[in-house]
Every structure is written in C-alpha cells, then in structure tokens.
Specification:
Keywords: Electron transport, Heme, Iron, Membrane, Metal-binding, Transmembrane, Transmembrane helix, Transport. By secondary structure, the chain is mainly alpha-helical. The chain is about 55% helix and about 0% strand. It has 2 domains: about 40 residues; about 80 residues, Orthogonal Bundle (Cytochrome Bc1 Complex, Chain D, domain 2). The protein binds heme C.
C-alpha cells in the first residue's frame, strides 16, 4: 500500500514538473535557435546605401539642362546674334572676315578672355551669364568661321 502511494506521488510530481515546463515555454514562445526572427525584430528602421550597394544608374536623376554644353551655334543664335548678326554698336559681324581677321590674329584664347570680361560695348560674357568658358569659346569659333 505504502509502495503504491509512492509510485503515484512520483508520477504526479513528474506530471506537474513536465506540465509546468510545457506551459511556460508555450507561453513565452522563444526557441533557442530563433536567430532569424530575432534579427528581423531588432533590425534598424532605415538603411544606408553606399556606392556599389545598388545600381545607382537605375535611379533616374533629374535632367539638369545646364549639364549638357550647348553648341557654339546654339549659344550664338540665342545670345550673341542680337548684336553680332548685323553689327550692333559696331560689333564684329557674324562670319565677316574683315571684321574678325585682326581679332583672330590675337588668338582664340585672348578672344575668349575678352568675351568673358567684356570690352567697350561688348557686355561681359555677351550677356550669357550662365555660359561656360567652353560654350563662349564655341560661340566665338562659330562666329569667326
Ligand atoms: C549687346 C550686344 C552684344 C552681345 C549680346 C554680344 N556682343 Fe560680342 N561684341 C559686341 C560689341 C559692340 C563688340 C565690339 C567691342 C569692341 O571691340 O570694342 C563685341 C566684340 C566681341 C568679341 C571681340 C572682342 C575683342 O577682343 O575684339 C568677341 C570675341 C565677342 N564679342 C563675343 C561675343 C559672344 C561669344 C557673344 C555671345 C555669348 C557676344 N559677343 C554677345 C556686342 C555684343
């Protein structure tokens, strides 16, 4: 009788221990090899992309109009022609060899320099303030052709 009770008591004790463990591990629900979900839960809200991480060319950048250099003809037609087409204020006329010959002798670099600073009635940069030096040079080369 005594032995039978002991066995029953041991079974009950084991049942309580096992049941408690199962109950709490289900309640908390954290596995030992839960690295994936842990990484997912503690990951930062934002990420920084460094050059090379992604194909930056795939992102379409807004097209900057000034980025592409205008041709000498474009600059001449839109800006310089207002004076240089007919020789306003005795500006050297477009394609007029007699007007340009003495100036061309000084060299294109000097003409560009003078065009940037302006001289006499010739305004600085010929009023094309957003023109690059190269664009001014191209416009001059177009005019002296
Ligand atoms: C408002 C009128 C006007 C505009 C616009 C103008 N020019 Fe002139 N430009 C002149 C006049 C006037 C001269 C003659 C200046 C002088 O020799 O005293 C001249 C002279 C020049 C010369 C010769 C300078 C020298 O050293 O003899 C160059 C080069 C020139 N212009 C380039 C340009 C270019 C390039 C543009 C356009 C981006 C331009 N100009 C726009 C009036 C103008």
């Amino acid at each position: 009788m005594y032995f039978k009770n002991s066995v029953a008591a041991i079974i009950v004790i084991f049942a309580i221990i096992f049941g408690t463990k199962t109950f709490f591990s289900n309640l908390v629900h954290v596995g030992y090899n839960d690295n994936l979900t842990v990484a997912e839960r503690i990951k930062p809200l934002g990420q920084v992309y460094l050059e090379g991480d992604i194909d930056v060319n795939a992102i379409k950048a807004p097209v900057k109009t000034a980025a592409k250099a205008r041709s000498g003809e474009e600059v001449y037609t839109s800006v310089c022609a207002s004076c240089h087409a007919v020789g306003v204020l005795s500006a050297p006329k477009f394609g007029n060899k007699a007007d340009w010959a003495p100036r061309v002798k000084r060299g294109i670099a000097d003409l560009v320099k003078v065009a940037i600073t302006g001289t006499g009635a010739m305004p600085p940069k010929g009023t094309c303030m957003d023109c690059s030096d190269d664009e001014l040079k191209a416009a001059i080369e177009h005019m002296i052709k």
